[in-house]
What we know:
Blueprint: E1 2-8, H1 12-18, H2 20-26, E2 31-35, H3 46-49, E3 55-59, E4 69-73, E5 79-82, E6 95-100, E7 103-109, H4 118-144, E8 147-153, H5 177-188, E9 193-194, H6 195-199, E10 226-230, H7 232-235, E11 238-243, E12 259-263
Site (Interaction with DNA substrate): 256
Domain Endonuclease/exonuclease/phosphatase: 6-256
Binding site for Mg(2+): 8, 36, 153, 155, 255-256
Amino acid sequence: MTVVTTVNVNGIRAAAKKGFLEWLAATETDVLCLQEVRAEIGQLPPELRELPGWHAIWAASEAKGRAGVAVLSRTEPQRTRIGFDSAEFDNSGRYVEIDLPGLTIASLYLPSGEVGTERQDEKERFMAEFLVHLTDLRARAAADGREVVVCGDWNIAHQEADLKNWKANQKSAGFLPEERAWLSRVFDEAGYVDVVRRLHPDQEGPYSWWSYRGRAFDNDSGWRIDYHITTPGLADRATTARVERAATHAERWSDHAPVTVAYDV
């Protein structure tokens, strides 16, 4: 059994002061994918830079204080890779992957976008390039007899069931028709599977992000934008999926919650 968790930490140094390290000490996950780390390795305090029992690969953004992804694994990776051969995005701290025996695991932080701005244009450019990468990645994995899981903050709610207030957000970044259609292409054309939705087909959510504004968390007025997206063979071996939602607002160490899936591999 291999347990994989993904979480956007919303600044790992801030999260460490709010309970992330205590969570990390208690978790039984085998691989942890992090997004929005917002720090270079040299900026991390010793308790984050030196994690006994973990092998870590960090990919910082060249834009200080933005993005940043990482993968922590209890087993030493056979191979690591930062970026996906993109001239524009490989130094943006948005993608890192590792190879374990028979399994490629990636951490993704897809741009959030903002309607009518350059940020949305950037998101669209990223999506166009990344779909090509996903298609190539699946083909390479199949040739090598490997399975793939791309974990992370995809910053798109795919279906109406994936956000509480979907009617009010139809013109908002993250739920635009063209973004949702792109994610459908990831499933229908590139052939990947949304594991949490497969295991919870009739559930609203389960949400993984709640705004800090208002009482979104207390009202469970959230979005499901943190995914495990896998090759079909691995999806067939996913046994359980859960969102590790904090018991109370005060116990949160990020505006996202960890999403954990157990795979029978």
